[in-house]
Amino acid sequence: MRAYCIAFVVACVHDACALPRRTAALSPSDHLHEPESALSLAAAGHSASARASDYWPCKNGNLNHTGATTSVAPSNLASPPSWRWISDYPGDVVRATPLVDASSNIYLATVNSGRVLKFDANGHELWRYSTVGRPFNNSCAAADPLDNDCADPIISVPALMGGHLFLVTKRGSVRSLDMMDGTERWRTETADRTNGGGCYAVAAGFSTVIVATKGGGHAATGAYSLHAFEPEHGTKLWQFDLPDEDQGAVYNVMISLLASPSGNAFAVFCSAVGKVYKLDLLTGEAIWSVEGPTPGSFGTGGAVVGPDDTIYATSNLAAGNGTVSAYALEDGALRWRVDLGADMPAQVAPSVGRLAGPTSPLSVVVSAGTNPSPLGGAEPAKTLALDAATGALVWQYDMPLWHGAAAGDGFPEQHGCAPDSSANNAIGGDGVTYVPHEDGRVYAIRDADGDGVISQGEVSSWGFGMTFQGSPAIAPGLLAVSPCDGLAAWHAHH
């Protein structure tokens, strides 16, 4: 394992899916797999009669987007997956996270072909939904990107709630599908487009569906507007536009949804300049916002809310160093910040979970490293675990050194996945961290002996020859991953 120098600077500061009919009561259709914080337990208490909870209903697995679950998935990735599906549309791209329902069925959105597909746990296709027309390929785009004969690409990660799947297309069409058979229930237009430069996650919880769009008048990459809808008919509830003076869009945004014991609900997210926002979910108005470590810097990381009512956000300094910051959910007060060092930008959101059993301390796991480039040289990267209370290093694993374009994205044929160094990681109930990497391999990492050193026997991996944008999904006995050309799963009961 090759070692790299890291500078840890920890600043210790004092220590902590719409509402139905637009009220403060929570809907029985809301997710139950919230992390066990005071805020999320309030939601679970109102949802005792809910349908069986979906195992991985959105990117990073739950409304707080912690990327962690109590479910245990296969972790010996030296063995091949149980099955693999590769898109049958030439040039298609998959950037979405697989979603897993309460029956371990898997849902996957594709970009260029504009499709959503449902598979059972054994890889049998159950249905497919298409936005319209032929694939959105280069010839289609050259003719007219908005040609109605072209499929409308799905560049977002959909979300599941209450037996329905919610998505937004590149043209800003928000749609609801029946999870049982894939029929379209409703669609509504945002009068705006999503930006093709990112992979945004739909948020669905507390009877609210939120999508991100480009925002009027903005030509730059990223999204500047959030739109909220009620889930039964698609009626628009509110719109939040990022202030121009903030000088930053949201990019690959994940919007965490949570409720207080009093029943008030909130949305939390992070912009591309590291600014963290907390919104009132009822009105869309900002409750507070806090600047990132370097206003004006750029990063594609994000924010998640831990079960300790702390917001953990990744962003970058002006020099390119990645950072992980911990903020109090109540008022945004900084609790600690870690500098990941030179050549280690933090371009994906962290995960928050327990790495040594259900009673072990919380850890924040983040992957960092230089993004792949066709003309680039060596691209060092690492995955590391930090103590959630202090930011102190728990363990670090240096990813195998990679050079040039990401696996499957090389010249002369460019697949067009354009990933970060690693995709968002996921943490299983046994403490295994799953990391999809630019080299086309998925890694399973666990410090089994707890010595703070990841030895060779504590890592396994499987290579697909294709890189990743989507993060893994976990259900009992099931690990689903989405290489940029399709879907694969390890199924313990296959």
UniProtKB/TrEMBL annotation:
Organism lineage string: Eukaryota, Haptista, Haptophyta, Prymnesiophyceae, Prymnesiales
A Pfam family that the UniProt record links to this protein: PQQ_2
Name listed for the protein in its UniProt record: Pyrrolo-quinoline quinone repeat domain-containing protein
InterPro entries found in the cross-reference section: EF_Hand_1_Ca_BS (IPR018247), PQQ_b-propeller_rpt (IPR018391), PQQ_rpt_dom (IPR002372), Quinoprotein_ADH-like_sf (IPR011047), WD40/YVTN_repeat-like_dom_sf (IPR015943)
Pyrrolo-quinoline quinone repeat domain segment(s): 113-290
Organism of origin: Prymnesium polylepis
SUPFAM superfamilies cross-referenced by the UniProt entry: Quinoprotein alcohol dehydrogenase-like
